[in-house]
Amino acid sequence: MKVLTRQEELILLTVHQLKDNSHLVNIRQYLIENTNRKWSVSSVYVPLDRLTREGYLTERKGGPIGERGRRAVKYYDLTDDGYKVLQNTRAVTTKFWEGLEGAR
Q1: Is 53 left (phi over 0), alpha (psi -120 to 50) or beta?
Q2: Does the domain formed by 6-95 have CATH 1.10.10.10?
């Protein structure tokens, strides 16, 4: 099974945290607030698109937000495979962290 990049992992975890409110703007804002780093729209959108194509996320359309005539918002939901790849990534990462505590 695939091991996620750190960026992919954080994005999937953010979708999980935001639940029904997980659209691009909210995902990006959550990442900025919780990592204390800048995330461009493309640094979030490109992985969202890739993770959707790989079957780790599904998309659903909502109504437009803001001004009339704007496009519908795309919401993201974690799939069962998304949960599995997150669990696998966590297991692999945990193995690499073993022995670090108390070292030095």
Answers
A1: alpha
A2: yes
User: For the purposes of burial, counting CB atoms within 10 Å of the CB of 51, is it exposed (0-12), middle (13-18) or buried (19 or more)?
Assistant: buried
Amino acid at position 17, single letter: Q
Per-residue pLDDT at 56: 98
- Reported pTM: 0.89
Number of helices and strands (H, E) in the chain? 4, 2
The Cα 92–Cα 87 span in angstroms is 9
CA R_g for the chain = 16
What's the rounded Cα separation, in Å, for the pair 104 and 66? 53
Mean pLDDT within 70-75: 86
Q: Diameter of the chain by CA atoms?
A: 59
Domain coordinates in residue numbering, the chain: 6-95
The pLDDT value recorded for residue 69 is 61
Nearest to 51 by CA among 18, 79, 22, 21: 79
